[in-house]
Write a structure and sequence with these properties.
The protein is mainly beta. The protein has two helices and 30 strands.
């Protein structure tokens, strides 16, 4: 477990604990790089926290509840939510939701947003990405995802649920999607794209097929026959009714889909995949379907499909007095 220590006033700490206990309240906590902490409440809490954040180095932690979108993201701010779906076993009774999408853009080709993370959020609207470098989107639910400009480098989407297409006609200089459930198709179509899809579940039923990419340790599963773009690489994937003509292929399996998963059932829809939060999507025969990294093919291989975000949890409190100010030193542990 990783730990961090912060100090802030006892009043702010009490307000935060009350807000967490109420659960239905939308609360945003801004932690600046100098240790300063601010608390914001209500549907505009994320917007207000973002406005007060530094250009780089700030962390915003969101409670459960629904938040208005902060609009264009032009700062390298880490934003952590409480999870993208209800998971009572892990204490998530209400997900963290951003109501109307996010747009990552500096507005200048001369400047990129660098080295930051978005985690544990249901983003209910289109996500547009441009002018970013080393952005990680982890354990999120995304409804629409678009590469909307050039200068996208080293973008990672992991352990996430993407309910529709990944699209865009601009060059992507490194997109990795791993251990994620892709409900529709990958259509990003620039000829020079560098895309790796690893340990993912994808539909075959994607009219027009999937874009050129390297597909490794994936499961293509559905009813509607489609194809993977020529010159793609397809390694150690389970294929059901999908064409890989003109692709570089190695170590794949062809199946009708029966009995693939230990919890039964297909993924299929004529155009995309059905997602069921209660399912594990573990393979019924993981020793047969072994991926390039020695783990089972699909989302439970590799890094797995752990959907619980690393939200900070207060583990211990210790009051100190400095002059006339009472301060609280507390330890935060990441789940």
């Amino acid at each position: 477990m990783k730990t961090k220590r912060f100090i802030f006033s006892v009043i702010a700490l009490c307000c935060t604990m009350v807000a967490w206990a109420q659960n239905e309240a939308a609360v945003a906590i801004l932690q600046k790089s100098n240790g300063e902490v601010k608390i914001y409440n209500g549907s505009s809490a994320l917007q207000n926290a973002y406005n007060d954040a530094e250009e780089t180095g700030s962390v915003i932690t969101l409670s459960s509840g629904t938040f208005n979108s902060p609009g264009n993201i032009q700062k390298s701010v880490n934003i952590y939510g409480n999870g993208f779906e209800v998971n009572e076993q892990n204490g998530i009774t209400t997900p963290t939701t951003i109501s109307s999408g996010l747009n990552f853009s500096t507005g200048s080709d001369e400047k990129s947003l660098e080295n930051f993370r978005i985690e544990g959020i249901y983003i209910n609207g289109e996500v547009k990405v441009q002018q970013t470098k080393e952005l990680v989107i982890s354990k999120c639910r995304l409804t629409d995802f678009t590469i909307s400009g050039n200068n996208v480098e080293a973008l990672t989407i992991q352990q996430s649920l993407l309910t529709r297409s990944i699209q865009g006609n601009y060059e992507i200089k490194g997109l990795t999607i791993k251990n994620s459930y892709i409900g529709f198709r990958v259509t990003a179509s620039h000829a020079d794209n560098q895309i790796l899809i690893n340990h993912c579940l994808l539909p075959t039923g994607a009219e027009g097929g999937h874009a050129k990419a390297v597909y490794m340790n994936c499961i293509f599963h559905g009813l509607y026959r489609a194809s993977i773009a020529t010159n793609s690489t397809v390694k150690h994937c389970i294929l059901r009714d999908i064409s890989v003509d003109g692709c570089i292929v190695e170590g794949n399996w062809t199946t009708n889909g029966t009995g693939i998963f230990e919890d039964g059932g297909y993924l299929e829809n004529y155009y995309g995949c059905f997602y069921d939060a209660a399912r594990t999507y573990k393979l019924s025969d993981p020793e047969t379907y072994v991926g390039t990294d020695g783990t089972e093919v699909g989302i439970q291989g590799g890094m797995g499909f752990n959907k619980v975000p690393s939200t900070p949890v207060v583990k211990s409190l210790s009051p100190t007095v400095e002059g006339n100010t009472l301060k609280i030193n507390y330890e935060v542990e990441l789940r």
